[in-house]
Each structure stands twice: as C-alpha cells, then as structure tokens.
C-alpha cells in the first residue's frame, strides 16, 4: 500500500476511534492520537501533546463520527476542547481527512490546503453497515426500557431510510407487528411489499395509541405534543434522528412515557464492529 509508510493522526472521537487507532497500527508506520478518550490504554501509539504537534507531518487525519455535535467544536473527550476554527487554521498542506458528517466549513478549508475529505457517512458500504449497528442498538435500548417483549407487539417506525429499514427488518425477525409511517407513497408501497403495515404521517393521529414500541428516524418534530397525548403511557420511544430529534420529550416526561434521544449508537453498542467498518472504508479510499 502506497500509504503504509505515512503518518496517521487520530483526533477526538469515542470508543470507535480508540479501537480504530489500535487497528491502524498494524497497517501504518506511525499512528498518533490526540484528544481521544481512553488513549492511555493504547500500546505502541504516540500521544500528541497538542493539536499543532499532532497535525505536523500528518499525512492522514482521522476525525470523529460525527465530526461535531454543536457545529462549533470537534467531538473530543470531556476535558479537551478543540474549536473547528482552530482545527481548520492548524491544518497543514496536502493529505487526506476522514471523518463522519464533516461540516462544509471544514471541507472548504481542507480544499484550500489541498486536503482530500473522505466522509465515512457518504461511503455506501459504511453507511449501510452503520445502519445495521444503529438498528441493533436502537432495539436493544428499547427492550431495556420496556417491561414487555418485542414479540407480537405493535412497533411503529417513522421514516423509511437506511436506518428505518434496518430497524424494521430486525423487528420483523423478532416477530413484531411492524408498521412504517412515511411521507412518500412510494416508500409506503415498498414497505407493504416487504410485509409491513404502512401509513402516512397524517394517519398517525388515529393509530399511534396502539403502538408499544416507537422508533423515530425523521429529523423534524413529527412526534409533537398532540400525538404524545395519544401514546400509551407504557410505550417506549427511541428517537435516533439528529439532535434535537423529532420527539416532544417534555410532553413525554409529563405523561411518564419512556422516551430517549439515542445518538451515537454504534459507538456505544458495537464500537469494535464500527471500527472494523471504518477501517475497511479507509482502506478502500486509499487504494
């Protein structure tokens, strides 16, 4: 591999990047980390003293997934803060930057310095496998919050993208009664062809009261206060849409409904699998 003798800097992130850094040392000459939680447990990997020192001479930079949560800072361990602006200003000329959902401001700054950006979430294989990890974790989280089995229960999945499809498929495998709520008629027809029930978002008002497990993937307020008033008090809501999610969590709290905005599921439930997925995506991009 042409890149095997290059220096890699792994910056910020969660357990996924910790495990990825450990895997990278088997394929690259030099692997360095900065602002990575748990980095002290890594053997034969250098820890950078500062952002500037870490970026010096780095041919490949691996950032977190997501790259940022607030649009201001890079996602890092709790006691370290890295402003996106500081990161952009410190970038050296040339190289490759990996990360998940890399902000357009970072992409543009990197382009000015001849740095190629490779977004994990825009890699088809990575995105598909990430959806599987997310689906498994979302269902696991729902089960831990509910006093009931998933088997034979009414389960509602809002949206019909990658993650929604993966959730629905696994719920069906657990013998649940799955309904898809989607805006597009084509999505509802596809859901029906897969053996699911299907309703429009406008029909939620009449049907949501019977649902025991609700999974939202739609990144806008679809589960508003009026709908929450009709949700069963012993139901569980898992919202995996981008922060702040699509659920009125205050309304859920008032009614005593178990509801959780569950982000970064792969990093919490299957970090090793996620690290392997990202490694494969990196290697394919570097070939």
TrEMBL record:
Q: Which Gene3D superfamilies match?
A: NAD(P)-binding Rossmann-like Domain
Keyword terms, alphabetized: Oxidoreductase
Top-level division of the source organism's lineage: Bacteria
Q: Organism, per UniProt?
A: Anaerotignum neopropionicum
Q: What is the official name of this protein in its record?
A: Dipicolinate synthase subunit A
In this protein, which residues make up the domain named D-isomer specific 2-hydroxyacid dehydrogenase NAD-binding? Answer: 142-241
InterPro entries found in the cross-reference section: D-isomer_DH_NAD-bd, DpaA_N, NAD(P)-bd_dom_sf
The EC designation for this entry is 1.3.1.-
Name of the gene? dpaA
* Record-annotated Dipicolinate synthase subunit A N-terminal domain positions: 7-121
Report the GO molecular function annotations: NAD binding; oxidoreductase activity
């Amino acid at each position: 591999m042409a890149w095997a003798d290059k220096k890699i800097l792994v910056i910020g992130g969660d357990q996924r990047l910790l495990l990825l850094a450990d895997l990278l040392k088997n394929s690259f000459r030099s692997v360095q980390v900065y602002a990575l939680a748990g980095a002290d447990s890594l053997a034969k990997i250098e820890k950078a003293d500062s952002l500037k020192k870490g970026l010096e001479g780095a041919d490949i930079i691996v950032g977190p997934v997501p790259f940022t949560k607030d649009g201001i800072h890079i996602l890092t361990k709790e006691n370290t803060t890295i402003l996106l602006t500081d990161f952009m200003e410190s970038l050296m000329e040339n190289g490759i930057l990996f990360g998940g959902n890399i902000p357009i401001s970072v992409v543009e700054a990197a382009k000015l310095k001849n740095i190629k950006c490779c977004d994990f979430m825009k890699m088809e294989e990575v995105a598909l496998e990430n959806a599987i990890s997310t689906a498994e974790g979302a269902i696991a989280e729902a089960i831990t919050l509910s006093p009931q089995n998933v088997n034979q229960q009414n389960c509602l999945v809002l949206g019909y993208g990658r993650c929604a499809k993966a959730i629905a498929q696994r719920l069906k495998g657990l013998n649940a009664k799955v309904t898809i709520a989607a805006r597009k008629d084509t999505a509802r027809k596809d859901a029906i062809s897969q053996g699911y029930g299907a309703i429009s978002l406008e029909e939620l008002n009449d049907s949501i009261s019977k649902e025991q497990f609700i999974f939202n993937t739609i990144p806008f307020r679809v589960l508003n206060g009026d709908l929450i008033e009709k949700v069963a008090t012993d139901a569980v809501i898992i919202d995996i849409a981008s922060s702040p999610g699509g659920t009125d969590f205050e309304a859920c709290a008032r009614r005593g409904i178990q509801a959780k905005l569950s982000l970064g599921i792969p990093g919490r439930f299957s970090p090793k699998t996620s690290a392997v997925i990202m490694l494969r995506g990196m290697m394919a991009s570097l070939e």
